[in-house]
Amino acid sequence: MLHLKELGLNNMEELVSIDKFALVNLPELTKLDITNNPRLSFIHPLAFHHLPQMETLMLNNNALSALHQQTVESLPNLQEVGLHGNPIRCDCVIRWANATSTRIRFIEPQSTLCAEPPDLQRLPVREVAFREMTDHCLPLISPRSFPRRLQVASGASLVLHCRALAEPEPEIYWVTPAGVRLTAAWAGRKYRVYPEGTLELRRVTAQEAGLYTCVAQNLVGADTKTVSVVVSRAPPQHGRDKGWGLELRVQETHPYHILLSWVSPPNTVSTNLTWASASTLQGHGATALARLPRGTHSYNITRLLQATEYWACLQVAFADAHTQLACVWARTTEAASCRRGLGDRPGLIAILALAVLLLAAGLAAHLGVGQPRQGVGGRPLLPVWAFWGWSTPSARVVSAPLVLHWDPGRKWPRSSEGGTLSPPSSQRS
């Protein structure tokens, strides 16, 4: 990946947003092509980090209302941008596009038109007098973020994405049918709000049915978007079997990776797996995303930290635009220390003790304690290691000569010449 030159993310029906630090550390990437994604309505100002060679950014034919100035400034070598085919809102967020100091060229500038406000519709972005605008503007939630009505089966889960751009940066929160305000990093039994503004409804029942409102608010004002959630008694028969429930399971946990598994529902068109550490709920760290091919039933999440809690969510989409979501929490185990004392290994101590006893017994048998050392057939005895299956070393083995102690009363045998063998007499100097 470090040597990747071009990257394309095109024709993805379920791609809604490109969040903070989504693409990082691609030092040789020169062209990024993110086009023809009908639901892509948001690119975080800090979505791209450490892409020093990026020259071309293609974002045409999406649902983007703007491209933030921070995004452009984070790409120091950027030369051209394609934004045509997007419902651009011509306000302070995109005023950099017509600044005299900008060095960036628009691809098809005559087709890059304003969609809002009404008095600027169909006007090329490069012809808008942004100098007359203030530095602050209202938040805008993309109308394509989610539909006005969603149906979900009782017991299933649902994900609602809400993103907005403005100056200054807006705060995003949700209001439930009961009037409860759910702010970022909210985590409860039924609801969870992720830092970027996504609302997750878990195992919904008829009590959770009703209107859910996303609110994006800053010092200038607020924008809202409402969706009606309808909970049916039986799972709807749109692209899936009756009674099918998606379940994500943790198969194995290790110090640096977690193995997940699931049973893929029939008639799915896409499967996405998202994961991150628990610290992302406080705004720290980045969220990882894997787009999985059809028929995948397991995934091994790697490059994790030991003794750390992680969450993972599996989202499957069906041909009728319905989606299902299943999430789990898992904690990586603690890595075993490599520096353990012998006191922590009683089995190793027993093995070492047995080896010492065997070595001592072998030496005793070889040396023949209290007996003269004799060979077999006149040959010297082999060293101990020869009986342990080791190969004979290249060095020559020489046994010590046999020495008998002097016994004055001993009778010496006769030699072959008939004489008597006697010890040599000592010589005095």
UniProtKB/TrEMBL annotation:
Pfam families (UniProt xref)? I-set, LRR_8
Q: Where is the Ig-like domain?
A: 139-232
Could you list the residue ranges that cross the membrane? 347-367
Query: For this UniProt entry, which residues form the secretion signal?
Result: none
Q: Which domain of life is it from?
A: Eukaryota
Q: Any keyword Electron transport?
A: no
Protein name, please? LRRN2
Q: Which organism is it from?
A: Cervus elaphus hippelaphus
